[in-house]
Amino acid sequence: MSMTSWLLDLVCAQRHRMKPLFALMVAMALLLGLSALYVGPGDDSYPILVLDVVLVGGAMAFFGVAFRYCTKREMDE
Number of folded domains in the chain? Predict the structure, then answer.
């Protein structure tokens, strides 16, 4: 078994936990959007906002793609 196949099996074994994590990421994105209304490019907290946007966006993309892949893989089996 290759390392990639092993990692995909490991991620897909946790598919039932991805829905709540994705919902948490959506809630975090909404709160982040709310805070973006009050933070501008000149503020001291702006770099933290940008970092949070990257992290939350990356996590949402990962969990969305992983859930879709694992669901498709489960349906094929």
Answer: 1
Range of the structural domain that residue 17 is part of: 3-76
For residues 29-60, b (16+ Cβ closer than 10 Å) or e, as one string?
Answer: beebeeeeeeeeeeeeeeeebeebeeebeebb
The single residue listed with the structure tokens 């992983």 is 66
Per-residue pLDDT of 7-29, as tens digits, reads 888 888 888 888 898 899 999 99
Q: Please state, as a whole number, how many other Cβ atoms lie within 10 Å of the Cβ of residue 63.
A: 20
Cβ neighbours of residue 45 closer than 8 Å, sequence gap 6 or more: 39
Residue whose pair of structure tokens reads 């946790």 in the numeric block: 14
Question: pTM here?
Answer: 0.78
